[in-house]
Amino acid sequence: MAKNSIKWTKKDLLGLEELSVEEITMILDTAKSFKEVSERAVKKVPALRGKTIAHLFLEPSTRTRISFELAAKRLSADTIGVSGAGSSILKGETLKDTAKNIEAMKVDMIIVRHASSGAPHVLSWFVSAGVLNAGDGAHEHPTQALLDMFTIREKKGKLAGLNVSIIGDIAHSRVARSNIWGLTKLGAHVTVCGPKTLIPVEIERMGCHVTYDLKEAVRTADVINVLRIQLERQKKGLFPTIREYIMKYGITEDVLTKYAKKDILIMHPGPVNRGIEISQEVADGPYSVILEQVTNGVAIRMAVMFLLAQYKAGK
Q1: What proportion of the chain, given as a percentage, has pLDDT over 90?
Q2: What is the DSSP secondary-structure string of 140-195?
Q3: Domain 142-293, what architecture?
Q4: Which of 43, 129, 133, 280 lies 20 to 30 Å from 56, alpha-carbon distance?
């Protein structure tokens, strides 16, 4: 694997807010080695042979869950899966008791996705197994941000000095928060853009710039990360109509032609609402790296699980 001058010293990966520049860089460098594994004819290494990883997904997920499961299998780990619909939580069992029971089966790592912000942090207090945050409420989604950063670095050769515009539903986005923490730490300049009702108050304190003008956000960007409009939230009337949103903030071919740099990168964490936050032509166009993000997600998750296992082995 990639050689690093520092050693991984954390039992858990709960968010990018708490990671140092060196730790984030270590994950990205380690993922580069694991991406090479995924390109081989035999896409498997024995790095986690004999380890058991529990996938505790208590919120709907497709890409993230499959990506983590595939990453674990490529590291030769054994896996067990627990979903909200199939867990004892529906019978009144607490999250703590669920995790303690899973750990009693001698698992080495628990990957958790939960609708409540802070749930993985609470779990980490009660179990000795490593806890990996696969998305908690509107708080953080660290591996998504890491794969976004990995993809940008792979395409642009660097992160420092780049202008990254995150456009869309910032208020409900754990992806946006993790990206802001990670990108700013590694020297990128982050702009968030969307309707005022979808921009959190005082988000500038995280180190990003705020604009409500799509033209400004596109014009200055080297990378545009388009966020899903969480339609299930729009019952609250956070903007008048979907049609108005498309007109003011939709990323279309016309917008890119008029305002974007010639070498712009277009990203999206998925799932994509085609024709709303991003047009069909842009999602499938030459500037889009959406499917490459999915590919890189497996390498990032392999790297994180490997590092957490190395920490436990070195204790």
Answers
A1: 80
A2: B-HHHHHHHHHHHHHHHS--TT-EEEEES--TT-HHHHHHHHHHHHTT-EEEEES-
A3: 3-Layer(aba) Sandwich (3.40)
A4: 43
Q: How many CB atoms lie within 10 A of CB 7?
A: 10
Cβ-proximal residues to 161 (8 Å cutoff; 6+ apart), any chain? 187, 188, 189
pLDDT in tens, 35-59: 999 889 999 999 999 999 999 998 8
For the stretch 209-262, pLDDT in tens is: 999 999 999 999 999 999 998 766 556 666 768 889 999 999 999 999 999 999
Other C-beta atoms closer than 10 Å to the C-beta of 261 total 16
Tell me the two tokens of residue 161: 């000095």
Which residues neighbour 89 within 8 Å (Cβ) at sequence distance 6 or greater?
Answer: 58, 95, 98
Pair of tokens at residue 298:
């497996």
Name the pTM for this structure. 0.94
Neighbours of 294 (CB within 10 A): 16
Q: Is the CB of residue 192 less than 8 Å from the CB of residue 169?
A: no
Residue 187 tokens read as 């020297």
Task: Give the E-state strand segments of the chain in sequence order.
Answer: 52-57, 78-83, 109-114, 130-136, 163-167, 189-193, 209-211, 223-226, 265-267
**Domain locations in the chain?**
21-141+295-310, 142-293
CATH architecture type of domain 21-141+295-310: 3-Layer(aba) Sandwich (3.40)
Torsion of CA 174, 295, 65, 227, to 10 degrees: 30
